Amino acid sequence: MFVKRLILSYTKAVHRLNRTPNGGGSKNASDYEVPPACSFLTRRPYSLDAGNPHDDGQKPVTVSLYQMKKIIKSSSVGESVEGATCLQTFCPVCHTVPGATVTSGPEPAGARIYVNKTTGNFTCSSCQYLGRWDHIEKFFLPYNRSAKTVQELRKQRDAFLELKKEQTGPVHTLPGDSVALDVEGAKEVIRSLQLENIVPEALVNIRAHWSEGRKELSIPLVDVEERTIGYKTLHVGPDGEICERTVPEANASGLIYLRCPSSGPSTKVKDQQSQTNAILVLNVLDLLALGNVKQNATAVCLPHGLKNLPQQCLPGLERFQRLTMWFNYDTAGWDTARNYAKKLDERRCLFVRPTDQHPTPYKALLEGTIEPRTILAKAQPILHQSITTFRSLRQDVLSDLQNIDKVQGVKWKRYPTMNKLLKGHRKGELTVLTGPTGCGKTTFMSDYSLDLAQQGVSTLWGSFEIRNTRLAVTLLRQMVGRPLDEHLAEFEQWADAFERLPIYFMTFHGQQPIKLVMDAIEHAQYVHDIQHVIIDNLQFMMGVQDETKHLDRYWKQDAIIASFRTFATKRNCHVTLVIHPRKERDTDELTTSSIFGGAKASQEADNVLIIQDKRLTSVRGKKYLQVAKNRFSGDLGIMPLDFDKASLSYAQRKKKPDGTGDDGAPQTGQTEGSDGGIPADRTIRRALF
């Protein structure tokens, strides 16, 4: 018996020694053959794609702000300057060699890096490189470094700089056929574009260029070092409206600055106010309109409007102590302003409330009924308050009533019945989708999310049950409407179109700790301004662990649901959870009580959607989606799910006058008592209390 136990202990010890650091499997031989000078590059790949650094979206930095400040302070670089969103310090790579004597002369131009205090990502002002904190952490050499350490870091620095040169992206300079404008040229451009009430000095101050051949105005986007790294264009569209375009289309890290005219004679105090106060707007027309407003502030145009605010833009706003956000006066602009404020530090942000009395700057300039300075004077800070009154909520209530369509959320184009029941897809809500095994929950949810993503809703997919490749194939096929394996010549065209959609994927699969998943989701929401998070499904994410086998499974699921509920409310992001039901008889319909686990899932959810599949239990049975809970409007009802195998879609087909669908086939489930007895739209009105 003793010998048997000894052999068992020895076997376990050998097994532990052979494990890899990440939890299992055998190590590759290459893991042991990397020389010290190259281990830095092998362990963590670099990326010069500012918008998509390698695996940054799924593995957020875990080092604390205190630790980053401590490392910088203990190094030979010196102190760091803490701003509202970033730590500023001397770049230890671009302009210094490890071990070299630091001269006391003036700091080289563009020799600073900006380390984001939330994500840990840094932006180098010299080369606009975006990387993770652990890319550059080891270059902050302590004073008591050894000669061997210095020698290794010099080799790593050379490899680091060489890799950046190889991966440097394209430089987006102004079009070659455009010329800089003077005052007289600006007047001609204003007449050509029919920019009413715009002063020509505003176009000159933002260094606008004009292309006579293309009739297009170009305005440079500049970085924190005042270098042109992109541009915006204005031209008159076919319908006579002004069209705006940003180059590059995504992850532009530049801003447009316009100093507003000073109110009265210029003084040192007013100059200082214009350097520390900023008014943020979404488009060039609003920026130019502020060129008429006498305000001691600088107008700043964001690169991508309401789509997202790349973290590379934050260093350009560090010098401002007060930021007034003057966005579109609808609920979408209001929600975006609150999300942007969390990135920019809410303590320095003010908001122009979105009402009809507070139009955007250009619209206010055209109407002339209210002075823009009067609107700016009513801007209010939005801080977390423990107690509030109706007086504080009065403008928010008015905004919701004036923009009722926006309050209801984004409408589905593929599912008009869903618009009648749920009214729309709203931020800050929690939706639970359940249905029997194999009924098509993932297929429906991918089609459901694709519809929203095509309308600009940034989506983060967490597929713990199937691989991301298979999920992407399904999404692409649903977008195309037919199997691409039979039309491979069209793949590149559709793949390019799909790549432009704001859809992101988490690389998790199977069982994962909730803390790791929430860290990745919060990081992605901050970086990519995610508006819709999908978890498919909750049971796969929970898994089965030896260390948690003594915990109550219902308690564990309730804790996970509570985490997602808190995230949805705190970050104003819609979360959809796919949860399997408990095992019940096939002949019984599923209800909110059928959701696996305790009652917390149905209690915390704002919407409960149930896929009822009666095809296997009834000769004339049908599949349909039941809205079992609707906290927003209280409307309950069902929607038939007719599956199109070619497109893998449940999208509702439009009825023709003769009662047939788009393909000429009769529409099923349109009237009460038709095949299966399922109506196309059966709404049950219930009280909202």
Let me know the largest β-sheet.
Answer: 9 strands, mixed
Query: How many DSSP H or I helices?
Result: 22
Instruction: State which percent range the strand residues make up.
Output: 15-25%
Task: State the distance separating the first and last CA atoms.
Answer: 69 Å
Strand arrangement in the largest pleated sheet: 19-18-20-21-17-22-23-24-25
- Give Rg in angstroms: 29 Å
Number of strands: 25
Q: What portion of residues is helical?
A: 25-40%
The secondary-structure class comes to alpha/beta
Low-confidence stretches: 12-58, 659-689
What general form does the structure show? globular
Average pLDDT works out at: 79
List the keywords.
689 residues, alpha/beta, 9-stranded mixed beta sheet, globular, DNA 5'-3' helicase, transit peptide, iron, hydrolase activity, lipid binding
What's this, in brief?
The chain is of the alpha/beta class and 689 residues long. It contains 22 helices and 25 strands.
Write up what this structure looks like.
It is a single chain. By secondary structure, the protein is of the alpha/beta class. The longest helix has 20 residues, at 147-166. It has 22 helices and 25 strands. It is 32% helix and 17% strand. The model is unreliable at 12-58 and 659-689 (pLDDT under 50).
List strands and helices in order, with pairings.
Blueprint: H1 2-17, H2 36-43, H3 65-73, E1 81-82, E2 86-90, E3 112-116, E4 122-124, E5 130-131, H4 133-136, H5 147-166, E6 179-180, H6 183-193, H7 200-205, E7 209-211, E8 216-222, E9 228-236, E10 242-247, E11 256-259, H8 268-276, E12 277-281, H9 284-289, E13 298-301, E14 322-325, H10 331-344, E15 349-351, H11 361-367, H12 372-377, E16 380-381, H13 390-402, H14 404-408, H15 416-422, E17 430-434, H16 441-453, E18 459-463, H17 468-480, H18 491-499, E19 503-505, H19 514-528, E20 532-536, H20 538-542, H21 553-570, E21 574-578, H22 600-604, E22 607-613, E23 623-630, E24 635-640, E25 682-685
Parallel strand pairs: 12-13, 12-14, 14-15, 17-21, 17-22, 18-19, 18-20, 20-21
Antiparallel strand pairs: 1-2, 2-3, 3-4, 4-5, 6-7, 7-8, 8-9, 9-10, 11-13, 15-16, 22-23, 23-24, 24-25
